[in-house]
Amino acid sequence: MADLRTGDLRVRELRADDLRNGFLETLDALRPTSGIETAAAAAVFERLQRSPDTVVAVVEQDGRIVGTGTLYLLRKFLHGGSTAGHVEDVAVAAGRQRSGVGSAVIRYLLARAQQAGCYKTVLYCEDDVAPFYRKLGFRRTTNGMRFDHDEAPVSGAT
Ligand SMILES: CC(C)(COP(=O)(O)OP(=O)(O)OC[C@H]1O[C@@H](n2cnc3c(N)ncnc32)[C@H](O)[C@@H]1OP(=O)(O)O)[C@@H](O)C(=O)NCCC(=O)NCCS
């Protein structure tokens, strides 16, 4: 899909050089991330590159990454072989919040989900952020459930 431009924001897919240009610092708004080893970050990027059902979107402003969100396309047997979208890791850099960056990320990901034929897109969020998603057309649905495994494959994964 073409990049999405709105004002001075450009929404596009993650590139390797974004790892050194604000992407990891942007994720710090969600939880501390920029301390990740360079090789580990590169390995994650390489793996994502090989996954056609994952879209990592970034928002570029003044040449630097200030927002991000990830769409996972879930291929299902239900509904005659359907696709659902799952959005994760939505973050806007501290100091750039409340200026439309998060909305631009979500609109881009919803357009990608639509283009991929998704019949729904879901996400989990804390209560205090729900108004942000409601404004973008999401509605509250069923309870989220979580199982914590004994050993996470990457230390400190949350
Ligand atoms: C939540 C977040 C992604 C929103 O992105 P953003 O760029 O700040 O949001 P926008 O400027 O596009 O907001 C559009 C509207 O959504 C609402 N909104 C945005 N953030 C909100 C929040 N934290 N609480 C309640 N409403 C919010 C507001 O109505 C806002 O319009 P306004 O600024 O005119 O009042 C961003 O603030 C962020 O990264 N927060 C920290 C990490 C986080 O909580 N991520 C979400 C994980 S599910």
Give a written overview of the molecule:
The protein has one domain: 3-Layer(aba) Sandwich (Aminopeptidase), CATH 3.40.630. Helices cover 27% and strands 27% of the residues. It is built from 5 helices and 6 strands; from the N terminus they run E-E-H-H-E-E-H-E-H-E-H. The mean pLDDT is 95. It has helices spanning 23-27, 38-49, 78-81, 101-115, 130-135, and strands spanning 4-6, 9-13, 54-61, 64-75, 83-92, 118-122. A 6-stranded mixed sheet has the order 1-2-3-4-5-6. Strand 3 (54-61) and strand 4 (64-75) form a beta hairpin. By secondary structure, the chain is of the alpha+beta class. Bound molecules: coenzyme A.
What structural keywords apply?
alpha+beta, Aminopeptidase, six-stranded mixed β-sheet, binds coenzyme A
Q: Walk across the major sheet and give the strand order.
A: 1-2-3-4-5-6
What are the segments in which pLDDT stays under 50 over at least 5 consecutive residues?
Answer: none
CATH superfamily: Gcn5-related N-acetyltransferase (GNAT)
How many H/I helical runs? Answer: 5
Number of strands: 6
Largest sheet features: 6 strands, mixed
What class do helices, strands and sheet pairing give? alpha+beta
The gross shape turns out to be globular
- Mean pLDDT rating: 95
Task: Set down the secondary structure blueprint.
Elements: E1 4-6, E2 9-13, H1 23-27, H2 38-49, E3 54-61, E4 64-75, H3 78-81, E5 83-92, H4 101-115, E6 118-122, H5 130-135
Parallel strand pairs: 5-6
Antiparallel strand pairs: 1-2, 2-3, 3-4, 4-5
This protein binds coenzyme A.
